[in-house]
Design goal:
The protein is elongated and about 80 Å long. By secondary structure, it is an alpha/beta fold. The N and C termini lie far apart (about 65 Å). The chain has a 6-stranded parallel sheet, sandwiched between helices. The chain has 20 helices and 14 strands. It has 2 domains: about 1-220, 3-Layer(aba) Sandwich (Rossmann fold); about 235-473, Rossmann fold, CATH 3.40.50.720. Helix content is about 45%, strand content about 15%. The chain binds uridine-5'-diphosphate-xylopyranose. The site of uridine-5'-diphosphate-xylopyranose (UDX) has 19 residues, from helix 10.
Length: about 475
């Protein structure tokens, strides 16, 4: 099938690569000439497993990059809108890019001269967006019988986006006509019939994947709400476990044990119950605000979401208090920071609690030596001023960051941090103090390894053996 993807950002590129993998012909549109040139040269602008390979395999044949939105729409049967919907001034998503492309899509529909098209919103958008897109297209001259607007929310997580796309828990398709439903069923048929997974060259599905995935058909409004409600619920789980972790600290319980007992209930499950310094990223904070706004606009009391947000913000403060408790005063202290991305496995620093915490430490007069396996280029831009002033440095690896530091702070749950050589880290640090905002290490092991160790919702640990006093450097 001929597919156009409007917007070569995170969701758009992943969708483009994956639809090409499903043997569709994809025209991937963007208005950023620099980005298009980089893509044409074979570069992959985001850090995502399998994506560089997909782009390499299909670039120039099943996958073509172009700035000709109108032509791409005219030539396609299904058009996915995947432009950015950044947080707006009021907290919810700013939909001006969606409106802008909807106008241009209308011209493409007209140019298509009667060829029926389904325009699908895939970016994270609030309820009623499909209705607005339909209206903008109609008002821009696209004849109503030539198109339908559908909603097909994307549930991919950064870092595992390609696998999430190809092996989703479910595919949600919000449609208001059978014609549109048929087209979207055909787009996803390689997944829903299981044909893709039988291919010898298929990207192997994760162990727990539900194969083939179900396709859930709903109205466009329900599909839009499913997306926002899913993210709000997951954010709620994170805030819930963070509140439980705080109670564990207050009562001397251990959140790891509590999680085990809690998650063993099949109704609750184990996922999304890791405490930490709070959720971040481009989706949760924005979707939560958007969902709250929608509820408020429709006179529905959903103050539960305010509390989710409050707990999340408070979590950073709790972490900062732990740092102050571990170090007494902050001005002039040298702090090693492990992790700047909003979660492990990605280079994304949008709404990253790690960036917020590092910023606060700098503002309080500490100096920071940071290391992140992927997010340092983006973080350098954010802290350009502080870097120029020599207040923040970026290290080549975790050991270099720890060298001579007064404490080591873990801010992102990168898997590779768990495999660090703790003896080497301890030797590099000026004082063996670690404040772990992501519970990467087991406290008993940290005591064994000679650390003063605090984490989230678990008892603090102290070195089992007497400390060797370090010579002043
Ligand atoms: C999320 C949704 O999972 C995805 O379906 C949607 O399409 C986009 O938003 P993503 O933002 O990539 O995906 O991150 P996710 O892995 O869901 O984590 C979100 C945040 O919650 C991260 O900051 C993460 O560190 C935090 N988190 C997650 C926790 O603090 N504890 C957990 O147990 C799980």
């Amino acid at each position: 099938m001929k597919i156009a993807i409007i917007g070569s950002g995170y969701v758009g590129l992943v969708a483009a690569g994956c639809f090409a993998e499903l043997e569709h012909d994809v025209l991937c549109v963007d208005n950023d000439a620099t980005k298009l040139a980089a893509l044409a040269r074979g570069e992959c602008p985001i850090h995502e497993e399998f994506l560089p390979e997909l782009l390499k395999d299909y670039r120039g044949n099943r996958l073509v990059f172009t700035d000709d939105l109108c032509g791409a729409v005219a030539a396609s049967e299904v058009v996915f809108i995947t432009v950015g919907t950044p947080p707006g001034p009021e907290g919810g998503a700013d939909l001006s890019s969606v409106e802008q492309v909807a106008r241009e899509i209308a011209r493409g529909v007209v140019l298509g001269n009667g060829g029926y098209k389904v325009i699908v919103e895939k970016s994270t958008v609030p309820v009623f967006t499909a209705g607005w897109v339909r209206r903008v297209l109609t008002m821009s001259g696209a004849p109503r019988r030539w198109f339908d607007v559908a909603s097909n929310p994307e549930f991919l997580r950064e870092g595992t986006a390609v696998c999430d796309f190809l092996c989703p828990d479910r595919i949600v398709v919000g449609v208001n006509s059978e014609r549109a439903a048929e087209k979207l069923r055909a787009v996803y048929a390689p997944l829903t019939t299981g044909a893709y997974y039988r291919r010898a060259d298929a990207i192997p599905p994760p162990d727990n994947a539900r194969i083939p995935p179900p396709l859930i058909e709903t109205s466009t409004r329900s599909a839009e709400l499913i997306k926002q409600a899913s993210n709000a619920y997951l954010a709620l789980r994170v805030s819930f476990i963070n509140a439980v972790a705080n109670l564990c600290e207050a009562t001397g319980a251990d959140v790891d044990q509590v999680r085990e007992g809690l998650g063993a209930d099949a109704r609750i499950g184990r996922r999304f119950l890791r405490p930490g310094i709070g959720y971040g990223g481009s989706c949760f904070p924005k979707d939560l605000d958007g969902f709250r706004d929608v509820a408020a606009q429709h006179g529905c009391d959903f103050r539960l979401l305010d509390e989710v947000k409050r707990i999340n913000a408070e979590q950073r403060e709790r972490f900062l208090r732990k740092v102050r408790e571990a170090l007494w005063t902050l001005p002039g202290k040298r702090l090693a920071v492990l992790g700047l991305a909003f979660k492990g496995g990605t280079d994304d620093v949008r709404e990253s609690p790690a960036i917020a915490v590092a910023g606060r430490l700098l503002a309080e007069g500490a100096s920071v030596v940071a290391y992140d396996p992927a997010a340092m280029p983006r973080a350098r831009k954010i802290f350009a001023k502080e870097a120029a002033a020599g207040q923040i440095e970026f290290a080549e690896d975790a050991y270099a960051a720890a060298e001579g530091a007064d404490a080591l702070l873990v801010l992102t749950d990168w898997e590779e941090f768990a495999a660090l050589d703790l003896g080497r880290l301890r030797e590099a640090l000026r004082c063996p103090v670690m404040v772990d905002g992501r519970n990467v290490f087991p406290p008993a092991r940290m005591a064994e390894e000679g650390f003063f160790y605090t984490s989230m919702g678990r008892p603090a640990a102290e070195p089992r053996r007497a400390l060797k006093v370090k010579k002043a450097s």
